[in-house]
Known about the structure:
This protein is an alpha/beta fold. It has a single domain (2-160, 187-213, 255-270), classed as Rossmann fold. Helix content is 39%, strand content 18%. It has nine helices and twelve strands. The protein has helices at 12-20, 43-52, 74-94, 127-142, 162-172, 189-202, 219-230, 260-266, 273-283; strands spanning 2-7, 28-33, 57-60, 98-104, 147-151, 154-155, 175-179, 183-184, 187-188, 207-210, 217-218, 236-240. A six-stranded parallel beta sheet has the order 2-1-3-4-5-10, with helices on both faces. α4 (127-142) links the parallel β4 and β5. The longest helix is centred in the first third of the chain and has 21 residues, at 74-94.
Amino acid sequence: MKKILVTGCRGQLGNEIQTLAPEYEDSCTFFFTDREELDITDREAVFNFVETNGIDIIINCAAYTAVDKAETDEALADLLNHVAPGYLAEAVESVGGTMIQVSTDYVFDGKACQPYEEDSPTNPQTVYGRTKLLGEESVIRSCAGSMVVRTAWLYSTFGNNFVKTMMRLGKERDSLGVVFDQVGSPTYARDLAAVILKAADQGVVPGVYHYTNEGVCSWYDFTCAIHRLAGIDHCKVSPIHTDEYPVPAPRPHYSVLDKTKIKRTYGIDIPHWEDALRACIKAL
């Protein structure tokens, strides 16, 4: 039986992993923690937990994800996104285990015009992106068998996210303006959770990987699909430019990730974003 520690278990991805974990009860024992059960910024506590429980794999879903707030809260963002993953990686390496670290499209500058591959040059433009990239590097340096999975535009049935917000606003308002000049691939956290669990169960193949749902859209297109699939038809959605919606942290204009490597390595088919969205809205 593999012993798997899942940190950040009350976030979107952590909750989805908990939902799917019973499918692996014959081969895996899970330890689900959030800040109340394990403070991942406490190096000694991390080492003690990993050693005491004989952890084989850590799936780190914990992160500082408030992109705009991070611009003025760099110390905490760095602690959670960079320093703490390093502690987790060191701890699991010390017992001969491995780690799956979840990362982000924000490690790129968003100025490309073709999908980013795993070895494309990184150039983060925000505190969030910089601290997540430092976290990637720390995990890879500290744990030889580690796997980094970059994702983008994550949503789920849990927590606060774009899909839930657009459904709520669509019901409350007669009109909405949504940016059309930022392009990416939405990711249903349940699909990402399924791939991460498959990797943990089959055996982690070290390296950096990209995972989102298939297909490409803008936030405007995404919102139109959300409203259509949720049966919201009275709210007019209009496309707006990024500079009409100023925010403290710049958003990548292009966030499409190439997923060839993860599909080949783990033999998976990835659902189209609209099919995944339909499944999420049905679950909601």
